[in-house]
TrEMBL record:
Protein name: Uncharacterized protein
InterPro entries associated with the record: DUF789 (IPR008507)
Lineage: Eukaryota, Viridiplantae, Streptophyta, Embryophyta, Tracheophyta
Region described as Disordered: spans on this chain: 1-22
């Protein structure tokens, strides 16, 4: 497992169920509300996420705090969606133009942050501002979304506890990429109980990052000699590059991170 701030949000989910196959298996697909996802980031947006690090020449663990900001987001719906403040969603192809194809879905909201990290608000502040135009950010669920919907979160360092002075190895920033539609159905036998609406009890879904990128992640804090840390980070960054290429999406933060690699 690579050393980077992954911070997968844990989000309450319900489960839409349907029968399939000759043995009448019940296939349960987790469903999350976007509003619950933003709630999962609320405390981190206010106080930061603390990550315990072993720092060279320091005889104790250092808790480095990171604040999440919204770096990029693409939301595609499986059906046309419009609210009072946003235009009706349009069907979008791989090249970003309107098309009759149903490849990505119907484009609802597109965001690509270009402000400097110190000029940005935390993730929840940005979402609340975007929701003034796109109220679906608080009303849509993953059942409404295309599997191509995703967000990228930048984790910016703010302060260590205890204070250890100015250290380059604690200045690392990270990008994490997360699907907005959980894509891991679970199959249960006929004995699995669901209610009349085909919805089972609420449980948590962890949205682990499917890709990541690093900036200034050097030194033994992040890459230990003789380990696979470097290869793991490289693999995460390749996954991000592939995803962005497939989407035809120029991600400003990712491009900045990769252009500063040494």
């Amino acid at each position: 497992k690579s050393k980077c701030v992954q911070a997968p949000p844990s989000v309450p989910s319900s489960s839409s169920s349907s029968s399939s196959g000759a043995e009448a298996k019940v296939v349960r697909r987790p469903r999350i509300a976007l509003s619950d996802l933003w709630d999962a980031y609320e405390e981190w947006s206010c106080y930061g996420l603390g990550v315990a690090l072993s720092v060279e020449n320091i005889g104790h663990k250092v808790i480095q705090y990171y604040v999440p900001s919204l770096s990029a987001m693409q939301i595609f719906t499986i059906k046309p969606f419009a609210d009072d403040s946003s235009p009706r969603s349009s069907e979008i192809g791989r090249d970003g133009t309107e098309t009759g194809s149903d490849d990505l879905g119907y484009k609802y909201c597109h965001f690509n942050e270009i402000m400097q990290p110190y000029e940005r608000g935390p993730l929840n502040h940005t979402i609340s501002e975007l929701a003034k135009q796109y109220s679906g950010l608080y009303t849509l669920t993953s059942s409404d979304l295309s599997p191509k919907s995703w967000i990228s979160v930048q984790w910016h360092p703010v302060y260590p506890v205890p204070s250890v002075g100015s250290r380059k190895d604690l200045s690392a920033s990270f990008l994490t990429y997360h699907y907005l539609k959980p894509n891991f159905p679970e199959a249960y036998g006929e004995a699995e109980k669901v209610n009349e609406q085909g919805v089972s009890s609420t449980r948590k879904v962890v949205l682990r990052p499917f890709a990541a990128a690093t900036y200034k992640a050097f030194g033994n804090v992040w890459i230990m000699p003789g380990t696979s840390d470097h290869m793991n980070i490289w693999a995460h960054e390749c996954d991000a590059a592939w995803w962005l290429k497939e989407r035809g999406f120029y991600h400003s933060d990712y491009s900045f991170f990769m252009s500063r690699k040494v």
